[in-house]
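testing teh design pipeline on a random one, pls ignore if ur not involved
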């Protein structure tokens, strides 16, 4: 029992480390990518790839989605305000500030 708890703690810690590493690297990637592409084209590809991967998971049965009898308007509003507006503002902001400014803002 204790060994399983330690394994869960280790796995959770490794997942958190991986998540934070990807989050940190996304700033550098976004800055480099916006140097060669427009902000909206980068976001378009980012959302398209995410949609395609999620659709493959649903079609393969790895993920189940059941929307019958559920109100979809709150989900659409959350999808608009959280990822869409956030990612647009983040990408525009990252493309317009220097690396030093971005790092000092991130560290605070």
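output:
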């Amino acid at each position: 029992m204790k060994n399983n708890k330690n394994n869960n703690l280790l796995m959770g810690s490794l997942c958190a480390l991986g998540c934070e590493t990807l989050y940190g690297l996304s700033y550098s990637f976004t800055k480099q990518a916006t140097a060669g592409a427009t902000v909206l084209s980068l976001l378009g590809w980012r959302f398209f790839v995410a949609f395609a991967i999620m659709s493959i998971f649903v079609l393969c049965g790895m993920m189940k989605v059941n929307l019958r009898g559920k109100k979809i308007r709150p989900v659409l509003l959350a999808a608009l305000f959280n990822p869409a507006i956030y990612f647009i503002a983040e990408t525009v902001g990252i493309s317009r500030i220097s690396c030093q400014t971005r790092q000092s803002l991130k560290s605070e």
